[in-house]
Design a protein that fits this description.
The chain has 103 residues and is of the alpha+beta class. The protein contains three helices and three strands; from the N terminus they run βββααα. Helix content is 51%, strand content 15%. The protein is elongated and about 60 Å long.
């Protein structure tokens, strides 16, 4: 089980743009600390964003798995037609999680 809640990233105090941390909602629990050894500052920021998006990405993947299973059962003739609104919401959830990882 991962740490619950949304995670955020930020540049650590000081002038080193190569150091970032990812924290849980409460702001106190550190999920990860990143440094830029062997990376550009852009890579360190991108890695921090990706780690901070992990809970949303996992949730979106779990929702996508359910939706794809329903679609597959329908295509195989073993299940009802999936709810189009639910499928659309899953796609939105996936897009939002990807956007968080990339922004």
């Amino acid at each position: 089980m991962i740490t619950q809640g949304k995670w955020t990233w930020k540049q650590n105090r000081g002038n080193n743009v190569y150091e970032h941390s990812v924290r849980a909602d409460n702001g106190r629990q550190i999920i990860a600390e990143l440094s830029g050894e062997g990376c550009t500052k852009e890579e360190v920021k991108a890695n921090a964003r990706l780690i901070a998006a992990a809970p949303e990405l996992l949730e979106a993947l779990e929702a996508a798995e359910l939706s794809l299973n329903e679609c597959t059962r329908h295509l195989l003739g073993t299940g009802p037609i999936p709810d189009p609104e639910a499928v659309a919401l899953t796609i939105i959830q996936i897009k939002e999680a990807i956007a968080k990882a990339n922004s």
